Amino acid sequence: MGLLSIYFKPNFLGLLKCLNKLNWFIVFFSLINLSVCIYEDQIGKFDWRQTYVGRIKFSQFDTVSTAKKIIVATEENVLAALNLKTGQVVWRHVFESASTGNIQLLQITEKVVTVSGSNPYLVRGWNSATGVLQFEWSLTLQNDEQADFSEWWVQNDMLVHMLPVFGSHIEVTMYNLATGQNRGSTTKLPAVWANDGCIVTAPYYTCIHGPMGNQQLFSLDVTSNTMHLISQPLSEYVTLSSYDSNLRPLDGNGIIPAFTVDDRKIIVIKNSRFELLKTDVVDPSASVAIVDIANGPVVLQTWIDDTQGFSMRANSVSTGAEVSELRTSDRELRLPDPEVSAAVCTKSAREQLVCRILLTGGDDSVHLMQQGGRILWSREEALANVVAAEFVDLPVSDLDAAIESEFDQKEGSIWAAFSRRLQTQFQQLQTLVHSIQSGEVLEDDPPSALVRDYFGLHKIIVLVTEVGKIFGMDNLSGSILWQHYESQLDTEHAVLYTRRAARHPPHDAYLTVVGKHQETGNGLIISLNPITGSLIGERVLQLDVQLLQVAVLHQADNEKLHALILLDKDENVQILPQSAAPLVENMFMYVAERNTARVQGYALIYNGQTVEALRTWLVQLGGSADAGHRIVAVAGKAAGERVHSPGRVLADRSVLYKYVNPNLVLFLTEGPDPLHKDVVVATCVDAASGAIVAAQAHRRARALPHALHTEHYLAYLYYNDKQRRNEIATLELYEGKQRWSGAGAAFTSLWAERAPGVERLAYILPAAPAAAAATATERSLTDKHVLLALTSGAIIEVPWAYLEGRRGGGEEGAMLPAPAPEIMLAPEARLNYNRTLARPRQLYTAPAGLESTSLVLATGLDLFYTRVAPSKTFDLLKDDFDYYLITIVLAALIVATYSTKYFASRKMLKLAWK
Amino acid sequence: MHFQSLAVILSLGLVNYAACIDYDGWLNIKIEHSLNCGTEKYCPRGNIALKSIRAGAAVVDQIHFNKGHIQALKNLAEIDSFYTIRTLVTSAENSKGTEFFSSVKAKAFLGNGLSDVINAWVLPNGAVIAVSFQVTNASQPLSLESGTQKINSNFYLRYVEQAPVPDTATYIQKLEREREAREKGDLKDNKSFLAKYWMYIVPIAIFVMISGASNPEPAAQGAR
């Protein structure tokens, strides 16, 4: 199509003569990208999107409107409504991710009211059915330092703002909820007992104050006109010897003001006095909430029992009697640190208790439970914060594995091979017969058979989330296959390695997550089987030292496992498994310090017993450590990347050879400059020798953390401060018209005496980028496209031809329009058509088994998966290929051939008789 | 330590690079290695002095390797290890000095008669970001007859170039030129008649051929 459109160019020129050049360019661009867009019936065929809201901060059941919903406000600054029956998002508003979007209050009356931001605050009202904004007013506090301690609640259609000044007084202001009108002036209530351990149980403000051993419990209704301070000695409720000054408000949405003291006793405020409940807190870690059921309020508690697993109990507030309907214990339910976010109970027609309890786990999962402990639906909100992802191949089926192992065995006589052949063919026959016999049953099976498909499009995506939960996801359906929660895992800068692919049948696939321990910061290594999610090998390994760098050995040991090389803080090397140490050869590592832009290189040398790290080079990419430069992005080549063609054919049929250095790493640094405000320096460093291959600097610019690096291409994004726009700089490295080493010779970094030629250009990007990635295919035969995720929620596919540093020089150069300084972001090139992604954060690409296709996963608040074919699906029949038509045509042709033959012979016969 | 002055003055294409540097000043690179050092970890190998970064001319002054040095290098080469060089860069603005490390394979360094290339990369603000040593293919083996051996070093000062900016000016000019050309008269299409209208000619030709091929049949029948 691309080629054809070139030849039709004059036609279009004639047609569009009246249009100006720019319009023509857009039309031309759209022609080239025809294949990028999809047809209407292909929506959702190759892609899926999953929307998330993040960890729930506030939640409340919307029982007012007819369509039952749960309104949630989350840590991710999202306000959303979840369908009560399915858990799906009904509507969603994504606020700013900075503190200006922080949600401080969620209150549901007939409207949904939120207070968000942090001085100035925005008070907004939303329609609960549609999510449409109904009113909005802003509020700026004069006292900015104290503003963080503000407390908000809604009472009688008035928004109450309370600002405690510790040790002195409390300021209370009431506003009209819809208009923001102030009822009067701010009331100042004297409260010398206020401190930072105080809690709000609206409308009471409760504190513990007093000298050690003689503490008093104070509580004040801050909204009442008459100031009535409730105070009681604390020793009436808890024994003060074990007391560690801890007040905790109850979870859920309290219907009566109540709190827990010392995580043991529950106190409610009733008729202006404290009242100790008969029910104690079951477990110090238990979540306590007061829920109104038909026969009075009950205290609902959930906790994880060591023997019983997840447990829940409800006791009546007034009598302390247990409500048996709500007692639950479930050992199967894995819900760490359960917390009651919201609960609602009603009586059904047959006097039965119907409860809906929204539970949030420590792993950010959300579950809606009904009475009796049945989970109605679950949401894995951890997926709103994916930090690392990897595509893992599926294993081949048993049958294919048998065939492969048959061909693997080289030794043995002819007869042995023959008997093996017969044996496997008998097996194949058996399975065939078996599948025919139980054909119907097999088809009903869910796609449980996780085996590789013919085109290699079916894979498992392993996702590591910020909270420490690891997921295995089916890439075709997006369903979660397995999950593993590791509460100790700090996933900041966590890395994922596939250490053994699934194609070595007797051995399982092997995937390792390397992260940090939550508390100590030491290395934490989790090894699991990415197909089943079960722990294997090292399982969960806690190291006793902090790690500097991790790498995977390129040579596999005799179990086909790639060893993990760990460089710790003291520059010692650990190999996992230890037995792989003799395989360490020509291994180099680098360690980059983000804040000082100092990069060190190590050579790993095996000395017969252990592996030692020898520091071989050190560069200071900012000039010196105190120059203020910092590394913003590092882009190396993907492990196992292939380069299909070593050169590039130019218009004059000569070949320009690519400089393909597997050790090349692009460092993007930014720092202050006395003359040009900020400078961005891009440095290409050979990570084995420490030599700088190319470098360039941008003046008055700020770096964006997006860089990509494949083959001989490098690209990175930066913000041009002078022109106030985003730009993308591209570099291409070439050896020249002659090859430096013979064809097939291994590249060596240690013998680099020539410097490659660098072709560079910069382009304007008329959008704000959020992530960048290059497509990857099996053999790199297909064109490379650059995928850009924009903050507007689009993923745009830009052919490299529009970005290349060497413009118009290629064979295809003559075809391309004149180099426009601005990249056209055509709407047809948008991969996610009208499915906007909220806060895209990262793009991951992986090759499919099919050469033309590359798999793409975008993470962020939403997950989006699709596949792209940069050079069109040249190895695949079109999706709408008409098999029936071609069969009918073929059959008709055959029939026609034979019938004409018959008629022709008859005609000849007749002629002969004439 | 016996220093012997050896001046290698390199003149680079100064005119091209001069624009990249905002700052000028002197630069001193102290080279140290850990061969034959006795008790200390690093001992001096030489010194590179530049009077002006912008000019780029350098005076390289290095010691001669004696038998002890060569032996130490040979020991490293036996285990195929690295010969590590430490450099300390001082300048007018950075009197404290910045430390860099670089390594070459000891075997390669010995095999090429102690020849290396020293590249120092300089940012536009005059700060050095890296000093790297690489072995060059000198193809002159080590002559062990004489007691000492000269190090053949070539020093290059490399400048971090200024990156290109999106070329809007020429593009606008090009658009202007095209617009003018269009206003003056139509764009001259210098393609041949055939190249211009092939898409009309080919279908006609095919049509003619098809009709031509089907015509002779009745004619043949008539002849019979």
TrEMBL record, chain A:
Pfam families: Beta-prop_EMC1_N (PF25293), EMC1_C (PF07774). Gene3D superfamilies: YVTN repeat-like/Quinoprotein amine dehydrogenase (2.130.10.10). It is a single-pass type I membrane protein. Residues 710-913 form the ER membrane protein complex subunit 1 C-terminal domain. It is found in: Endoplasmic reticulum membrane. The keyword Glycoprotein applies. Keywords: Endoplasmic reticulum, Glycoprotein, Membrane, Signal, Transmembrane, Transmembrane helix. One of its GO terms (biological process) is protein folding in endoplasmic reticulum. Residues 38-147 form the EMC1 first beta-propeller domain. Component of the ER membrane protein complex (EMC). This is ER membrane protein complex subunit 1. The gene is LOC111355943.
UniProtKB/TrEMBL annotation, chain B:
It comes from the Eukaryota. The keyword Signal applies. It is a single-pass type I membrane protein. Pfam families: ECM10 (PF21203). GO terms for cellular component: EMC complex. It is found in: Endoplasmic reticulum membrane. Residues 1-20 form the signal peptide. Keywords: Endoplasmic reticulum, Membrane, Signal, Transmembrane, Transmembrane helix. Belongs to the EMC10 family. This is ER membrane protein complex subunit 10. It comes from Spodoptera litura (Asian cotton leafworm). The gene is LOC111358267.
